[in-house]
Amino acid sequence: MLGFALVLLWPTPRLLGSARWPPLSPVPALMLWQAIGLATGLAAVGAGAVYALGALGDSLPHALLAWWRNPSAVRNLSAGRWVALVGSALLAGYLLAVAAATTARTLRTRRRHRQLLDLAAGPLSASAAPRYGRVLDSAIAMAYCLPGLRPRLVVTSGALNTLSEPELGAVLLHERAHLSQRHDLVVLPFVAWSAALPFLPGTREARVAVALLIEMLADDVARTQVGAEPLTGALHHLGAAVAPDAALGGPGANLSGPGPAPGSVGDHALALRLLRLAAPPPPARALGWLAAAVAIALVAAPTAMLLA
Prior knowledge:
- With 308 residues, the chain is mainly alpha-helical.
- It has one domain (2-307).
- It contains twelve helices and five strands.
- Helix 10 packs antiparallel against helix 11 (263-278).
- The chain is elongated, with a radius of gyration of 22 Å.
């Protein structure tokens, strides 16, 4: 189990992050990334628990049942098994605590940003603009959204002055796709994962890759409804903008989730999206089914190890 976790932590994110097929099937690719994150946590935490409690039964459920029936049985565990048990519990608690803190910080930042927007921004009166659309007076051409129960879709005055009507419509469709599909819930676990283990390059690669995939999903919604040309034009106009902290960006997106993204990362992702819009990928259902099967297997493997 420990070896399985180590493989998922380092070479697997590197291989998947550099693969060429995820843009062909963003949804199965997202499932695969989520499976990698979940399976890594199960294997890493479970490895210590299995080793520590292995002396109490021939499987983890049997060992837990034996512990429940005879709590004093754990007193006979060796020092090494106690270290593994405590380490497993600390790791699980740490990961959960970071996830909770990241979620709370993100929600707090969004709430404050929404309150500022309600004071400083005016209603967005553009065609097809939702009731929660806002116009922010700024020379920077930017569009982004704040997800949540009370969402906000923000377009700056600089963007309104720069974008044509079809391009603005594509931007609005892109942002509404982020909100309706709740892409913030997809990105947030990977933001927490990279915050918990910032020294591991795989967590950073997962965060950037997942954020790029949700941008591609939103691109697909806009492209399907208005075509690729307006969205491509919007990408060229807004490509240098970076979404504020805890927001989901528009065509010029912050591709690392909440927090600023390095320019090189954003430029590379923008180039990939433009290339994808210029040559839309053909349906790859077989590839999608294969990725979904691998995702299920990744989660099933550590679960079977824990229960067997």
